[in-house]
Amino acid sequence: MPNYVKIADARVCMDRPPPRDSCTSFQFNLENFRDLRTTKGHYVETPEFLCNGHKWNLMIFPGGEAETTEGDDDYVSIYLYHHTVGIIEASYELSIIDKFGKTKKAFRSKNCVFGLSLHQWGWPNFIRRFDTLDESQNILDSDGALKIVVSIEVEDKPMGVYVPKNPFLNMIRDKLFLDADTADVCFEVIDSADAKTLVSFHAHSQILQVCAPMLANLFDLDRRDLQLATITDAKSDIFYYLLYYVYGGSVPEEDLATHAKDIIDAADKYSIVNLKLEAEAAYVKSTEITMQSAMDDLLYADAKNCPLLKEAVMNFLAENSAEAHEKMSFTDFPGHVVKDLLLAVSNTKKEASETTSDELASLSVSDLRRKLAAKGLDVDGSREAMIESLRNANSYLNFGFH
C-alpha cells in the first residue's frame, strides 16, 4: 500500500438503508467533513461490514489520494476494500447523498475481481471537494456530515480452479424421466370427461417411493410386470409438472403463476410439499387481492392449508378494514381464522420498536418456515401447527441442556 496516513480523529457512523434490487447497501455518515485534514494520502476508514459473506470497508481521502495526478488536490477519492481471503467478482456502486436524501453523484463499476493483484477498486477523482462544501449544492447535512452509500452485488460465479458440479442429479432427471425402457410403472392421465384422451407417463417405483410415496402407493409394487395407475384429478400438463419436479426438475416461474391453483391442488393431493409451497408463493406474488376476490382466496387458502396465501388475505383485510366492513360479506368467514385476522390487525398497528413476549406468534409465515427448515422440520402446515412444532423442538432442546 502507498504511504497513506489514517486520520485518527475522524468519526464515521454506519447506517444500512433498505436493500435495492439484488444489491446490499450500506450508508456511512462522515462527520465534520469540512474540518477533516485535506493532506494528500490522509484517509478516513469506515468500520468493516459484512456483505455476501465477505468483509469490506471504505477508504475516503478528503483531500485526494497520494497517487492522483497533479492538479487533482481538490478531489475527494473513495475506494472499496475487500478484506476476506480469496477471490471474488463483484459489481458495486458508490454514491454521495445530499441532505434531502437524493443522489448527488454516483459511479458504478461492473465485474471487478477482488483478491488477485488488487484488493480495492474505486475512483481517485470521485467528487470535487469544492462541490461538497458549496452550501448551495446541499451536499453536507445540517451537522456537516458527508453521506456515502455503497451498494455491492456479488457475481454468482466461481473463481479460480474450475471443478464441474456433480452431474448425477441431472442425469437422473434427463435420462430417466419418462423413459419407457427403464420404467416399471406408468400413470395414465385422463385428459377429458369422456375418458377418450389418455396421456401416459412412465416412471420408476424406487424414485417414487423415496420422493413421492403417495404416488408410489397407487401401484402394487409386489408385482413384477409394468404397473398402471389412472389419474383422473389432474390434467396432463399439470401432472407433467408434478412428475418432473419429483425427478428433480423445476417448474418455470411463469408457469407456476399461470397454473398456480391447479398445481397446488395436485401437489396437495399427492403431498409434493415443496412444489405446493412454490406454487403458493407464485400465486401470492402474481395475484392482486381485491375486495371481490379476498373471501374466495381466503376460503381456498383455508381448504388447501396455504398459510402464506391466508396471511396475504388477512394483511389485506387488516390494511383495508373500513372498506372491507362496508363492501364485503363475512357470512362464510371461517370462525377458526379469526385469530389470524386479529394478529394481522395487531401487526398493522404495532410500532416497529414494540416487542412481544411470544416471538414465534408474531413471526410471518415465511419466517416460521425458514426456522422449521433450519431445524429439519416439516414446513407444510397451518400457522398454528408450525408454531407448535417449533415450540416442541425448542422444549426438547431445553430439556436436553438442563
Give the topology.
Blueprint: E1 5-6, E2 12-15, E3 24-30, E4 42-45, E5 49-51, E6 54-61, E7 75-82, E8 88-97, E9 103-114, E10 120-128, H1 129-133, E11 146-154, H2 168-176, E12 185-190, E13 198-203, H3 205-211, H4 213-216, E14 227-231, H5 236-246, H6 253-258, H7 260-269, H8 273-286, H9 294-304, H10 307-319, H11 321-327, H12 338-349, H13 359-362, H14 365-374, H15 383-401
Parallel strand pairs: 1-4, 12-14
Antiparallel strand pairs: 2-3, 3-11, 4-6, 5-6, 6-7, 7-10, 8-9, 8-11, 12-13
Helix pairs in contact: 5-7, 7-8, 9-10, 10-12, 14-15
Describe the structure.
The protein is of the alpha+beta class and 402 residues long. Helices cover 35% and strands 23% of the residues. The protein has helices spanning 129-133, 168-176, 205-211, 213-216, 236-246, 253-258, 260-269, 273-286, 294-304, 307-319, 321-327, 338-349, 359-362, 365-374, 383-401, and strands spanning 5-6, 12-15, 24-30, 42-45, 49-51, 54-61, 75-82, 88-97, 103-114, 120-128, 146-154, 185-190, 198-203, 227-231. Strands 1, 4, 5, 6, 7 and 10 form a six-stranded mixed sheet that branches. It has a five-stranded antiparallel sheet with strand order 2-3-11-8-9, with no helix packed on it. Helix 9 packs antiparallel against helix 10 (307-319) and helix 10 crosses helix 12 (338-349). The longest helix has 19 residues, at 383-401.
